[in-house]
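#dry-run=false #mode=assembly
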Amino acid sequence: GDSVTQMEGPVTLSEEAFLTINCTYTATGYPSLFWYVQYPGEGLQLLLKATKADDKGSNKGFEATYRKETTSFHLEKGSVQVSDSAVYFCALSRTGGSNYKLTFGKGTLLTVNP
Amino acid sequence: GAGVSQSPRYKVAKRGQDVALRCDPISGHVSLFWYQQALGQGPEFLTYFQNEAQLDKSGLPSDRFFAERPEGSVSTLKIQRTQQEDSAVYLCASSKDSQPQHFGDGTRLSIL
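#status=ok
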């Protein structure tokens, strides 16, 4: 079945450091890929998405590129802020995400210190 | 409303009691999903509705779990004879057309 593996945390960085959170997936066909973020006490928010190979999703300075050859969708940010502290989830769905379930990784806790 | 609304935010129940969790999706969203998120884990799919039709319930862990969406809007997830392993955050999400899912803040269920 479908699965998502993401690097285990916690990840602790200083403000303005470079961030990479690795994510790889296993799925048949051509899934859509997502990064969701969960701030303390809140629900999941979509951070970015990509729906086909070589697509780059980007939002709020975060980027991730859909790499079919390595089945990866690593999340990067050039300069993190304290406000980026949250749990980040990589996820996939068989379609565009509207009418098919999401399969999530276990999440990676990011803490950014001033 | 502006977003997906879930109630209650917190629910404490004794083992063996029945509980009901409510989800009010974004107006006009045809698709509705329930997920279960154990502590320190990612959400796991429970069930999916398209309007009032439950098209996929493959993720429901046992026959103690039951979900309904009778009029195609508000949905209720019911857990009968709760067990300690049912303690988790239950997330509801809705979507329409080809747009990604929007999540509510979840209901944190604790079974004593």
